[in-house]
Amino acid sequence: MSKRSKGTNRTGSLRGNGPSKATPATPTAAKAGATKAGASKTSATKTGVRKTDAKKTKAAAGKPAAESAATKSAAKKAVAKKAAAEEPVAAPPKPSGGRAESRLGMVRRARRINRELAEVYPYAHPELDFRNPFELLVATVLSAQTTDLRVNQTTPALFARYPTPEDLAAAVPEEVEELIRPTGFFRAKTKSIMGLAAALRDEHGGEVPGRLEDLVKLPGVGRKTAFVVLGNAFGVPGITVDTHFMRLARRFRWTASDDPVKIEAEIAEIFPKGDWTMLSHRVIFHGRRICHARKPACGACPITHLCPAYGEGETDPEKARKLLKYEKGGFPGQRLNPPADYPGRPAPPAPGVAPGAAQRPSGAE
Question: What is the DSSP string of 74-130?
């Protein structure tokens, strides 16, 4: 073999056994590498999202207590606002046209109710037996939290024993308590009537004053009691806002208030001053006889065409007539000695008391 041939074979052996540095990767290998790199990147992205979510969750869990309290406070306010919106209020009636009643319309309707009640109860009067201002004052104080009938059955014995403020002021408290026990709260009432009797004796010469500012200073005497005495013993106009008057004033939509002083002021703006005393009697009469608190006798009411609360009670005429009280239902009234024009029967005296002993001659009222 020649030298040239031997060299050629060496060169060929070197080229065949050692790959060149410039040899490129195959297409399949390149694709596989790219896929692997993409997967790594996606994995990293997901990991980052999980970390971000974890941070948000941790931040949400660690909200300040103040923010949580604010949320609860807002929720409570929303509930309170909703409850206030749902609370029933005295809305004005709507006539056939569907429009809300105007102030002028309400005043005209209110005065018409007063006129029609005057036709229904031409005999309306104070339902406490009395012969003079002192007896009316004491009887009105005793009438708190009880019926006028119970007071009328109690006062004959009381006034027979203590006819003047001086007599009552000097009485033995335990003896007065026994006499007025049937009216309830007899200890507190004894303190009040003996206190006012002493004040009349010491500050007013034994006479009941005829001024509101003087009456309300007496023990146990408020505005309601004072107006009863002023209107029925002195002829001074006043609005008596008792439970019956308050109830009907709201049902008639004359007021939406439940405060006696506010109701008095609002009603005083609707009616002339000269109507106040008799308006009080008529409304109270209607509340006691027909427009009851729990079950009004709507089906027997003569002023349903003027009442926006019609339907709150029994509307069937036959059933409603069975709900009527006192003379409207054919029963005795509350006074043992009613006025001459009262169409009903006198109330019976207290059990065990002879009718003749309970009756007393009526004074000017």
Answer: HHHHHHHHHHHHHS---PPP--TT-PPPPHHHHHHHHHHHHHHHHHH-TT----S--
- Out of 129, 148, 189, 242, the active site residue is 242
Site of tokens 């290998």 = 29
Q: What is the pTM of this model?
A: 0.72
Residue 361 CA to its chain's centroid (Å): 42
Q: How far, in Å, CA of 42 to CA of 242, rounded?
A: 83
**Whole-angstrom distance, CA of residue 250 vs CA of residue 272:** 19
H helix intervals, the chain: 3-17, 27-61, 65-86, 103-120, 133-142, 148-161, 165-169, 173-180, 186-203, 212-215, 223-233, 243-251, 260-268, 276-289, 317-321, 355-358
Residue 131 and residue 123 in contact, taking contact as beta carbons nearer than 8 Å: no
CA-to-CA distance for 126 and 279, rounded, in angstroms?
12
- Summarised one tens digit per residue, pLDDT across range 202-247 is 999 999 999 999 999 999 999 999 999 999 999 999 999 999 999 9
Separation of alpha carbons 236 and 280, rounded Å:
13
Contact between residue 93 and residue 309 where contact means Cβ atoms under 8 Å apart: no
> Which of 224, 259, 273, 319 is the catalytic position?
224
Label residue 352 by pLDDT band (50, 70, 90): confident
What does the DSSP 8-state code read for residue 24? P
| Identity at 36, one-letter amino acid code | K
Q: How far is CA 13 from CA 9, 23, 141, 330, in A?
A: 6, 18, 137, 142
**Cα 260–266–270 angle (5° rounding)?**
135
Nearest CA to 218 out of 147, 271, 165 is that of 165
Decide if 148 is catalytic. Answer: no
How does pLDDT run across 296-311, given as a tens digit for each residue?
999 999 999 999 999 9
DSSP 8-state symbol, 23: P
Supply φ then ψ for residue 244, to 5 degrees.
-70, -45
Task: Determine whether 242 is an active site residue.
Answer: yes
